[in-house]
């Protein structure tokens, strides 16, 4: 699925489901300026920070860039409540965008809650809606529970989540799946065509200080926001934190620049009970389960091509 060729024609209809932190914001910016797609709506979820901040970040970002795309507030916590919320403030800052402060929008969030909006947009798209899911999968899981027919109305899911080998929250679990493994399991078992872009490739999607200079040189609002976020990431890395990793933008690249990634079809499940493996994406690499593949899993990346694609996409911004 990762390497399938796309035919030309009308723009593809996308919905973004996100927990807007630093790299989420860059993915959203790229999606807004990508020529191939029309972003129908953005739904927010608790993840990197609380849904209060992920929602405000999303609304402020889209409005600052001149977009009136509907932004809908989603789940404040996982399907199954845990002893503590799964924030990543040490990576994204207390409010999610590091040191970047956007003008506060006076607009309101969409009246529909995220699951209802996902269902409506899928119905309106008549089977052509694709979802870029770059946070915990809680909203999509709730939508599937509330509207069972939804699984037949979504064309494809492009998911940043999981890993074939290792994790970044525990030795076995990646953050988005660890935050809500029950939701991830439900979504993966839904039968919706799915591409998983996990840590095996996203930890290689590293930008550099040259990319910061390139974004600044664009002279646009979008370029400046991306450069400011990347500068925060660079300082974070110098202090011993995560590098300039484009986890979420790479999931968008899987959809729009298939040659950036190499994928293989596997059966994938998610561990929801293990004391040491909770949230682990169980990728059946060797076919031991005998089950049919339910996801196309990214296993390798062409980093120079990805960096080129990301720059050229954001360079479509004109103001």
TrEMBL record:
A GO molecular function held by the record: hydrolase activity
Domain named Inosine/uridine-preferring nucleoside hydrolase: residues: 15-307
Keywords recorded for this protein, A-Z: Glycosidase, Hydrolase
Keyword Hydrolase belongs to the record: yes
One Pfam family linked to the record: IU_nuc_hydro
Name of the protein: Nucleoside hydrolase
Organism this protein belongs to: Faecalicatena fissicatena
């Amino acid at each position: 699925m990762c390497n399938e060729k796309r035919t030309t024609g009308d723009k593809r209809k996308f919905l973004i489901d996100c927990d807007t932190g630093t790299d989420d914001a860059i993915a959203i910016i790229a999606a807004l300026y990508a020529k191939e797609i029309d972003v129908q709506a953005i739904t927010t979820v608790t993840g990197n920070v609380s849904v209060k901040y992920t929602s405000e970040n999303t609304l402020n970002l889209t409005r600052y860039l001149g977009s009136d795309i509907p932004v809908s507030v989603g789940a404040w916590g996982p399907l199954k409540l845990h002893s503590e919320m799964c924030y990543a403030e040490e990576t994204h800052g207390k409010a999610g965008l590091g040191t970047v402060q956007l003008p506060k929008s006076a607009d309101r969030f969409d009246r529909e809650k995220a699951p209802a909006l996902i269902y409506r947009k899928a119905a309106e798209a008549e089977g052509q809606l694709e979802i870029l899911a770059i946070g915990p999968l809680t909203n999509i899981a709730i939508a599937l529970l509330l509207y069972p027919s939804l699984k037949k109305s979504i064309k494809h899911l492009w998911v940043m989540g999981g890993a074939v080998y290792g994790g970044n929250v525990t030795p076995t679990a990646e953050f988005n799946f660890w935050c809500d493994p029950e939701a991830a399991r439900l979504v993966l078992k839904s039968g919706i065509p799915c591409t998983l872009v996990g840590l095996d490739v996203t930890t290689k999607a590293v930008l550099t200080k040259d990319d910061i200079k390139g974004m600044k040189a664009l002279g646009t609002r979008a370029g400046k926001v991306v450069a400011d976020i990347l500068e925060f990431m660079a300082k974070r890395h110098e202090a011993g934190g995560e590098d300039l990793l484009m986890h979420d933008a790479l999931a968008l690249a899987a959809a729009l620049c298939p040659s950036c990634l190499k994928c293989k079809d596997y059966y994938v499940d998610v561990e929801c009970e293990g004391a040491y493996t909770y949230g682990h994406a169980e990728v059946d690499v060797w076919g031991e389960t005998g089950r049919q593949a339910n996801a196309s899993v990214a296993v390798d990346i062409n980093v120079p091509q990805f960096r080129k694609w990301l720059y050229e996409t954001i360079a479509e911004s004109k103001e």
